[in-house]
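Supplementary Note 3. Input sequence used for the single-chain structure prediction.
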Amino acid sequence: MRTAILAALLLLAAGCSVEPWVKPYERAHLADPIMSFSRDPVADSYLNHVHEAREGARGAGVASGGGCGCN
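The predicted structure, written as discrete structure tokens, is reproduced below.
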């Protein structure tokens, strides 16, 4: 019984390592629009940019900048 508890504690401690799962140089791959859940993330990004440029005066988007396109 003690060995099972000790083994479980060692497994839990091994899961709490300090090393990050995603290295800093690998994060660029995760930020790529291709990694999105959308069917066509590049086109969605473009359409979102067009929508933000046209509706910039509305103020409901998450992007900064005005409707003039000067982000």
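Residues 19-57 form one domain. The helical segments are 2-15, 27-30, 41-54.
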